[in-house]
Amino acid sequence: MAVDKGKLSCWIILAIVLYVFVPQIYRSYIKVNKLKNEKKQLLNKIELEKNKIEEYNKRIEELKDEFYREKISRDELQMVKEGEEIYRLIDKK
What we know:
- The protein is an all-alpha fold.
- The chain has helices spanning about 5-65, 65-75.
């Protein structure tokens, strides 16, 4: 049974080409998937940061209101106007 040398050489060349290129293609595929996942994570992070910026901008707008600033000063910083007295109610149960 004689094997055609042309067919044999084609199979050998094909095997060598596959041996050389398939691992590179596989590594590239893995790298592309990794980069896609990283991109997705970064886009999510960007969206979260945009939401934070939006909240901070809202807060800045609220702080422009004089009554809101006074409320914050009184509630959180325990500040009073000159001449005011604070009475604290103690609930004894």
